Queue: 2 jobs
Job 1
Amino acid sequence: MNNNYGLAIVKDYPIKGVNFIDINGLLATPKYFTAVIEKFCETIKNNLPADMLGKAAIVSPESRGFVFGAPVAAKLGLPLLLIRKNGKIPNHPYIFRITNEYSTYDMEMDSDLLAAHDHFVYIDDILATGQTLGSVRKAVAKKDKKIELAVHLTAVADLKSLRDENADLNGLPTKEII
């Protein structure tokens, strides 16, 4: 198995100067996808205290976060809370603002499901500037909930200094599996 698991870099996409990490090769290769789901589970088990693992729920943002969050939640036997685009949660949406490297917009999650859990593991595909993660962390904290660990498929190394400067990420353990 190669070390990039089928990931490819698409230069200048979606805008000039941005190098997009394409996960399609990974998803199209079952052995790679299976391997990364195992790595997500292993990383969570190794970095979340055992007593916390039984109390936590997975939280994942639309849409590529769903690809990894759902199978990890199922494999670990944990509840899954989806972060959706505004207008997609039918019952009791908790609406909050997301700011990332491209824009600012509203997202939402089911407030009843959020209320049912106090501790979360955040799962997404790419950790770039950390702005999406920071926005979700603040939104969850406003409801007296806590993201205990954030696990991503991979991170953009060139943006590490921006993540290090992001006060919304202070003290939050983050891990990448590739």
Job 2
Amino acid sequence: MSNLRKAFTLMEVNLAILIMAGGILSIVGLYSLGYRENRQSREDVAGAAFADAVISPIVMAASATNLKWSAFKDIKSYPSENGWADYFNSNGLVTQDPTGTAKSVFGSVMGELKSAAIGTLDVDTSWPEAASAGLRAGLVVMHDDDSAVLRIAFRASRNTGELMALPIYYTEVRFQGVADE
């Protein structure tokens, strides 16, 4: 009988450590990916909630049954006929205050819809500041002359420079008010 004992060689131990280290490093690498995806998911949800808070009052006001056709058909496009191009400066970058433009668009459209109503328009016409969650916003309302459809587009981003790279929330509202006599 020999005095040799069964054991692992140094080479086998090193190989096992190498395999385990590769597995652990792979798992550690997934943490940064998971963190980034989690952050992006939170921003997507915040953007969708902000879009809902901005678009819903416009949709409710534009689809009110007490709007006059003569006033609805004359609603302008905001911020202008240029649409999203109004959010860029002369260097082709998003303006420093896109939310200011969006607030102006919101106020103008809600003011026009309020003046088109027969009686009162039971909709909150104030900008939903509480829903912003620190996001920058862009809002475009498009309306062709004599059209019965109002098109609304919205974007939100944490960083001003990324505003145009993020998803657009879009809806259309058809006139449901009263015909002028």
